[in-house]
Amino acid sequence: VQLQASGGGLVQAGGSLGLSCTASERRFSMYATGWFRQAPGKERELVGAINWSGETTNYSDSVRGRFTISRDVAKNTVYLQMNSLKPEDTADYYCAASPRGLRVDVSGYTYWGQGTPVTVSS
User: Fold this and answer.
1) Per-residue pLDDT reduced to its tens digit, 12-67
2) What per-residue confidence (pLDDT) applies to 32?
């Protein structure tokens, strides 16, 4: 499965940005999807994840209440809506798919998209 992440850009602190992750194959709809981010010099970390049905989501403490993950099965796409952005949210954002259910660890995801950069200015 090939994943295409898009929507990154430059935004001021307090602003909003929406990311999309579109898959090349329909079986993506049966996979859990996670959004990760990696800032320069830091490890890749989970932002949040959504299970295959969209009924279950999981967020890191740092983004809970500000970010929302959703999925559109018809469009084979998972979204990350980011509100109230902070400079510390600046990173490359990646989407990834897990055939083994919702996972919180990087190693639990099999398919990865390329990163899309998000820069939040103060």
Assistant:
1) 999 999 999 999 999 999 999 999 999 999 999 999 999 999 999 999 999 999 99
2) 98
Q: Among 61, 63, 54, which residue's Cα sits nearest to residue 81?
A: 63
Asked whether the beta carbons of 21 and 36 are under 8 A apart, the reply is: no
User: Would you state the pLDDT for residue 120?
Assistant: 98
Geometric angle at alpha carbon 35, from 5 and 9, rounded to 5°: 50
Q: Which of 21, 31, 44, 25 is nearest to 106 (CA)?
A: 44
Q: Which of 41, 48, 50 is nearest to 62 (CA)?
A: 48
Three-state secondary structure call for residue 28 = helix
Distance CA 20, CA 81 (A): 9
Find the length of the chain: 122
Cα-Cα-Cα-Cα dihedral sign, residues 15, 118, 60, 26: positive
Looking at the DSSP bridge assignments, the partners of residue 71 are 78
